[in-house]
């Protein structure tokens, strides 16, 4: 039953006090009663006198006892009832799925989204929250929902998918195509009060008539008339139960039941029964029937989900049917009313036969009392329970993402408000993408283990929308449902080569010195570190490669060239850039940081690359877009806010280089793993002795960072391309992919060059390819082929001008 | 019961962090005030005073009429003939139409919410980004107006009417921020939208 909450413990101390005061008043009462006669010597007592005196004494005792006791109970009843704050858990919602023609959507994604939003598959999608169809043609009946930009009505619509694209959206009622449809969002988590009561408040107007009348018919027929206790009801219940040979009706009034739930522990004893009756009388004295009934509807205990007690019919209806209370049908109402008698005994998921029997009993009572006709009762009794197989309200299935939600909200809200104030929290989670990310980590790590890597490898993924910085998925453990250490947010690991592109970004920001075709020496280099020791980095293949272009140095991830370049540019510029890109912690200004000897979390790496993937527009990563009160009033919005970086031309040119990492560099394996050839930008990262494997990669609209390693930081045999890259590919294989945009902003442009000799070239010339350059950084000298062509061009123009 | 529910709200206090820069603060603040429909005049005024501390007089917020006169009309007139019309997704068109309606009704918060939804569908639509810039301008969110107009310019055609609207928006926003030289530069850039072919396309 309902767990002993704060109120429960208060109650215990309360009744102790009462016992003490009762003792005091009792002794006072006896002296008061016996006092006046005490002085006289008593004559021989007659029997009548004795009885009279005893009666008087008892009356005095009774009054002396009862009056303060009643006053105390009165205080308890009113103070608690009026001061009662319902602690409401906050509800956390996923981003709503928007549907429109031309949208990329696979049948699997649609299925995942509908599942997450507790849509039930049915034959005809007649009811809100149900869907039907398959094979590319679906009917979906979306529920009404209150969004931050207005209330959205329920709607039944048709959806056609072809080849992973939404091809048509129509209304079955006829009429034109529908432009944009937004489903109601999946409820992905709740943040519960400390006493773990789960409840959604409902007001009398929102409760179906049949529930209100039916509840009275079954539990308390004379509720409208009695004063809190109902002797006739007790008698009738006893008679009915005797006749039926079992407890069909209870004798307690609704008021008594409420009192029991509200104020008293669950121990069955006579004094408790008396207390209950007295408090019921007092409650009725002070409050209207409507107030008492509404409190009952919200208080009644209806089930237990893990640690959370389900209270009230509104939450009960969500829990058992996945539907709001105003949408449940008569036979479901009867089930809810039946469950009141014993939530565990009649649990329709665990004890379906018993629950069905109880429901049909309740339906019969509905018939006897004239709430339903005999024919209706008969039809309804033949229906199944219509309970969703698993609770459609989430038992916090996405612990890693919810950690991020809490992180973001804790800047603006107190913990107690999150737990008790019934906030509606709108987040950016995409359930289908989260499912894909979970599969990628779990399945990917299993695959790596079977390929000979340690079986206890751990992994993490952060997946974000490139332009908005909205986080779509977070996985922080190879078992994503496990609550605990969240590696995506909290594992600080050396990042290795994943940091190198920042060195090249800085170079490209100096077009007077560097372009992708500038040469740098990849030769042994020795630097003095802060502690005075010497440091000579070697390359991954233990070779030096001589003079190489910056492009080759980055795509092949050469350490010696990168360190030399970074030292030429300056360490302070490097650490300053990281700060600019959103790294808040202090980065040590030592040469080794150029090769990623710096510990960052996957989340932080994602933040750094968000700015780059978005073409130099930095956005703080967000998990929450808006917060509303329980009533739907706006409290906070976390809108999209852009911060343009200064050298966006260099960022665009860098993005080209990162696409070459995949086309010709260390991540060459990726296109094969994806089984698709889309332009993707990315960078691998490996740390010393193969402890960490990183891959950061982005398409036009999705950015993901994957990390793989061992929790105790032992060497794990992983490299960027043998582990994290595979996990990343496993995720993106399930996502629609758009090619990275390589359009250049102002200040950068594409031109034809001959890469090997770093010369300007032209289309059709030998070895010519297009490459972007920041203005002022492109080669000056032209290849002979290009020169010839310019000559032709000049002569053409000369001819044209010199015509006459 | 109603009274009990009302108490819930009282207990709930959103702590607004002042630590971040003033603009972030005003965005939330302005939104809450607009909802409460009191002190509506106050917040943009304070915002402007804070933001343009050097300017002698706090300028009034940008109104639709001014936006029309200083951003949209000059851009339209000057660009006749040099026009670029991008294709529009119908879902995005539906949302931008609703946003324009909200903007016309003076509900700028709602307009911003709708445009943000449209951007989730088509994040790199220069037209959409410019519309957001203009809404931010009217909300006195000058730095965000500049950011969105910059983004629109970066990925937009950099020629014709849209280009002119980008630079006019930046010019007005810089002017309100008291950055005169930036404002003048943006103004002169708006002239070039009709002559120069952009590089890098």
Secondary structure layout plus pairing:
The complex is a heterodimer of chains A (804) and B (201).
Chain A: H1 6-34, H2 47-83, E1 90-93, E2 98-100, H3 107-116, E3 120-121, E4 130-134, E5 137-142, E6 145-147, E7 150-152, E8 155-162, E9 165-170, E10 180-182, E11 187-191, E12 197-199, H4 209-219, H5 231-244, H6 254-263, H7 270-286, H8 289-299, E13 301-305, E14 308-311, H9 313-321, H10 330-339, H11 352-368, H12 374-381, H13 399-409, H14 415-420, E15 424-427, H15 431-450, E16 458-465, E17 471-475, H16 487-490, E18 493-494, H17 500-508, E19 519-522, E20 527-528, E21 534-535, E22 546-549, H18 550-555, H19 559-569, H20 571-580, E23 599-600, H21 602-613, E24 617-618, E25 624-628, E26 634-637, E27 643-644, H22 648-664, H23 670-674, E28 681-686, E29 692-698, E30 702-709, H24 720-732, E31 748-754, E32 759-760, E33 768-774, H25 784-801
Parallel strand pairs in A: 1-15, 3-4, 12-14
Antiparallel strand pairs in A: 1-11, 2-10, 4-5, 5-8, 6-7, 8-9, 13-14, 15-25, 16-17, 16-30, 18-23, 19-22, 20-21, 24-27, 25-26, 28-29, 29-30, 31-32, 31-33
Helix pairs in contact in A: 1-2, 2-7, 3-15, 4-10, 6-7, 6-8, 10-11, 11-12, 15-24, 17-19, 17-22
Chain B: H1 2-10, H2 22-36, H3 42-51, H4 64-78, H5 90-104, H6 108-121, H7 126-138, H8 142-155, H9 160-176, H10 180-192
Describe what you observe in this structure.
The complex is a heterodimer of chains A (804) and B (201). By secondary structure, chain A is α+β, with helices and mostly antiparallel strands. In chain A, the strands form eleven sheets. A five-stranded mixed β-sheet of chain A has the order 11-1-15-25-26. The termini of chain A are far apart. Chain B is mainly α and 201 residues long. Chain B is globular, with a radius of gyration of 19 Å. Chain B is built from ten helices and no strands. Mean pLDDT of chain B is 72; it is low at 1-58. The longest helix of chain B has 17 residues, at 160-176. Helices cover 67% and strands 0% of the residues of chain B. Chains A and B meet through helix 8, strand 26, strand 27 and strand 31 of A and helix 1, helix 2, helix 5, helix 6 and helix 8 of B.
């Amino acid at each position: 039953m309902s767990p002993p909450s704060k109120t429960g413990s208060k109650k215990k101390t309360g009744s102790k006090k009462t016992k003490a005061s009762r003792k005091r008043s009792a002794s006072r009462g006896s002296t008061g009663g016996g006092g006046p006669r005490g002085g006289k010597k008593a004559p021989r007592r007659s029997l009548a006198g004795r009885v009279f005196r005893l009666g008087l004494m008892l009356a005095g005792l009774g009054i002396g006892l009862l009056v303060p006791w009643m006053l105390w109970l009165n205080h308890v009843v009113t103070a608690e009832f009026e001061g009662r704050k319902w602690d409401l858990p906050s509800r956390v919602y996923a981003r709503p799925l928007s549907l429109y023609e031309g949208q990329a959507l696979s049948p699997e994604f649609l299925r995942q989204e509908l599942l997450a939003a507790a849509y039930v598959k049915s034959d005809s999608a007649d009811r809100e929250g149900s869907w039907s169809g398959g094979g590319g043609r679906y009917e979906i009946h979306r529920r009404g929902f209150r969004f931050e930009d207005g209330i959205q009505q329920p709607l039944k619509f048709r959806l056609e998918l072809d080849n992973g694209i939404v091809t048509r959206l129509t209304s079955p009622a006829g009429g034109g195509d529908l432009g944009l449809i937004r489903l109601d969002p999946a409820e992905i988590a709740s943040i519960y009060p400390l006493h773990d009561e789960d409840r959604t408040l409902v007001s009398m107007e929102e409760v179906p008539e049949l529930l209100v009348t039916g509840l009275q018919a079954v539990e308390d027929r004379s509720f409208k008339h009695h004063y809190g206790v109902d002797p006739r009801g007790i008698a009738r219940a006893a008679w009915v139960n005797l006749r039926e040979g079992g407890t069909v009706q209870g004798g307690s009034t609704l008021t008594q039941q409420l009192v029991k739930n509200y104020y008293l522990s669950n121990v069955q004893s006579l004094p408790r029964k008396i207390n209950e009756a007295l408090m019921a009388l007092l409650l009725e004295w002070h409050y209207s029937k409507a107030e008492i009934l509404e409190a009952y509807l919200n208080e009644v205990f209806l089930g237990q989900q893990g640690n959370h007690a389900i209270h009230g019919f509104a939450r009960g209806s969500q829990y058992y049917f996945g539907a709001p209370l105003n949408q449940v049908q008569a036979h479901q109402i009867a089930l809810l009313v039946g469950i009141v008698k014993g939530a565990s005994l009649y649990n329709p998921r665990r004890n379906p036969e018993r629950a069905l029997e109880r429901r049909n009993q309740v339906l019969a009572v509905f018939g006897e009392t004239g709430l339903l006709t005999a024919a209706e009762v008969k039809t309804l009794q033949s229906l199944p329970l219509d309970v969703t197989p698993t609770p459609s309200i989430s038992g916090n299935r996405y612990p890693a993402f919810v950690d991020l939600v809490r992180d973001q909200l804790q800047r603006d809200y107190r913990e107690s408000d999150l737990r008790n104030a019934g906030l509606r929290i709108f987040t950016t989670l995409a359930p289908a993408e989260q499912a894909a990310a979970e599969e990628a980590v779990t399945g990917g790590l299993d695959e790596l283990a079977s390929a000979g890597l340690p079986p206890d490898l751990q992994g993490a993924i952060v997946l974000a929308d490139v332009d908005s910085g909205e986080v779509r998925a977070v996985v922080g453990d190879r078992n994503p449902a496990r609550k605990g250490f969240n590696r995506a947010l909290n594992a600080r690991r050396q990042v290795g080569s994943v940091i190198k592109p920042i060195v090249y970004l800085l170079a490209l920001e100096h077009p007077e010195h560097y372009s992708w075709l500038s040469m740098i020496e990849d030769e042994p280099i020795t630097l003095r570190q802060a502690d005075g020791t010497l440091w000579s980095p070697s390359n991954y293949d233990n070779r030096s490669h001589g003079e190489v272009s910056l492009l080759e140095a980055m795509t092949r991830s050469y350490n010696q060239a990168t360190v030399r370049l970074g030292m030429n540019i300056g360490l302070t510029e490097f650490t300053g850039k990281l700060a600019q890109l959103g790294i808040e912690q202090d980065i040590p200004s030592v040469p080794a940081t150029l090769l990623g000897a710096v510990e960052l979390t996957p989340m932080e790496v994602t933040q750094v690359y968000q700015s780059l993937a978005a073409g130099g527009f930095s956005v703080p990563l967000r998990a929450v877009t808006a917060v509303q009160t329980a009533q739907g009033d706006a409290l906070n919005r976390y809108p999209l806010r852009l911060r343009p970086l200064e050298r966006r031309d260099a960022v665009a040119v860098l993005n080209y280089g990162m696409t070459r990492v995949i086309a010709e560099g260390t991540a060459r394996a990726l296109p094969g793993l994806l089984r698709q050839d889309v332009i993707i930008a990315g960078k691998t990262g490996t740390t010393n002795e193969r402890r960490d494997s990183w891959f950061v990669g982005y398409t036009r609209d999705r950015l993901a960072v994957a990390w793989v390693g061992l929790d105790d930081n032992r060497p794990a045999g992983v490299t960027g391309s043998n582990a994290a890259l595979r996990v990343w590919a496993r995720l993106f294989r399930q996502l629609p992919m758009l090619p990275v945009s390589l359009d250049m902003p102002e200040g950068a442009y594409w031109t034809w060059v001959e890469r090997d000799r770093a010369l300007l070239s032209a289309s059709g010339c030998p070895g010519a390819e297009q490459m972007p350059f920041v203005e002022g950084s492109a080669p000056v000298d032209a290849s002979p082929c290009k020169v010839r062509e310019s000559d032709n061009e000049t002569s053409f123009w000369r001819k044209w001008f010199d015509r006459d | 019961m109603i009274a009990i529910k009302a108490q819930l709200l009282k207990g709930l206090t959103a702590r607004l962090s002042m630590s971040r820069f003033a603009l972030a603060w005003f965005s939330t603040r302005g939104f809450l005030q607009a909802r409460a429909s009191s002190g509506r005049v106050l917040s943009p005024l304070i915002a402007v005073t804070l933001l343009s501390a050097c300017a002698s007089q706090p300028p009034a917020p940008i109104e639709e009429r001014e936006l029309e006169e200083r951003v949209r009309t000059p851009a339209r007139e000057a660009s006749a003939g040099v026009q670029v019309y991008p294709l529009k997704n119908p879902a995005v068109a539906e949302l931008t139409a609703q946003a324009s309606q909200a903007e016309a009704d003076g509900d700028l918060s709602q307009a911003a919410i709708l445009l943000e939804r449209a951007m989730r569908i088509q994040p790199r639509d220069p037209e959409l980004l410019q519309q957001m810039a203009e809404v931010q301008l009217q909300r006195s969110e000058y730095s965000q107006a500049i950011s969105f107009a910059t983004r629109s310019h970066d990925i937009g055609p950099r020629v014709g009417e849209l280009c002119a609207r980008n630079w006019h928006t930046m010019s007005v926003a810089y002017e309100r921020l008291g950055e005169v030289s930036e404002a003048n530069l943006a103004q002169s850039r708006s002239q070039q939208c009709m002559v120069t072919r952009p590089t890098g396309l």
